[in-house]
What we know:
By secondary structure, this protein is an all-beta fold. The chain has a single domain, classed as Beta-galactosidase, Chain A, domain 5 (Distorted Sandwich), CATH 2.70.98.10. Helices cover 3% and strands 42% of the residues. It has helices spanning 240-244, 298-301, and strands at 4-7, 13-18, 24-28, 33-38, 66-67, 89-90, 105-111, 124-133, 136-145, 151-157, 160-162, 169-172, 178-181, 187-190, 196-197, 202-206, 212-217, 222-229, 233-238, 258-272, 277-279, 281-288. The strands form three sheets. Strands 6, 7, 8, 9, 12, 15, 17, 18, 21 and 22 form a ten-stranded antiparallel beta sheet that branches. Strands 5, 10, 11, 13, 14, 16, 19 and 20 form an eight-stranded antiparallel beta sheet that branches. The termini are far apart.
Amino acid sequence: MSPNMIRDSDGSPRIVLSEPTGSTAEVLLYGGQVVSWKNERREELLFMSSKAVRKPPKAIRGGMPVCFPQFANCGSLEQHGFARNKLWSLDDCPEPLPPANNPSTVDLVLKSTEEDLKTWPHRFELRLRISLSAGKLTLIPRVRNTDSKAFSFMFALRNYFSVSDISEVRVEGLETLDYFDNLLRKERYTEQADAISFDGEIDRVYLSTPTKIAIIDHEKKRTFEMRKEGMLDAVVWNPWDKKAKTLPDLGNEDYKTMLCVDSAAIESPIVLKPFEEWKGRQEICTVSSSYCSGQLDMRKVLGFR
Length: 305
Ligand code: TA6
């Protein structure tokens, strides 16, 4: 049995994943983008801008945009590359992954076209498996070099988390790491705090992070546990009020209820020889956290027994 495919009001295809405990996820072929993840209590876990634009060539501001083959504007392509601005297809050949054939998993693919070669001169196949289970959303991105020469690329899964109030959120797992600060000429700094909290714009690429990162929403008593493989870095971004006003597809107050923590391969771009394939993995679990003034034992949340 496959996932449910419905049509949006504008006719664009939307795939609805479901699993037995009642959580759902919704995916658009446009951008290969998860645009909704609701838990069994029908609470939306991902942020979607109140002014999101859902048609080409704009990327949809919310959910989980795929940034490929470039991150930010550190290259000749559009911001965050072109993958999130293109129409993907259902992938009927997800090998070497076993076929999914269940309502909680979908396989998508984006293949380079001759037209694409004019902007990025490399033949590729970008695949994404999106799999929903109770309290967990797993994304498995893969990039295959189908060209006759090697190429390198950056990659990120931009996770727009829905939070109750950004000033009540902490991120654990990035302490003591070096990071590039996009607000300070991308210079390299070292994180001094034992957890990241938010009182202004933040735009950092943390380097060579641990596998596990926790995003703790005190007000909702909810922790997102993020585990990633094949993507060494993590981006943390919130535009805050001033930058938010410069983004036409972001509501002026939206910054208060969003936080981007992305799985990313940025500092060391991935290099593929002809016919090699890179595979990443990102799992996000939701955990009820009875955090109250330091009671949450982060060693347990992050699995350090
Ligand atoms: O976090 C990196 C970054 O480039 C920020 O500087 C900001 O521009 C953000 O991504 C948003 O990018 P987008 O293209 O989604 O508006």
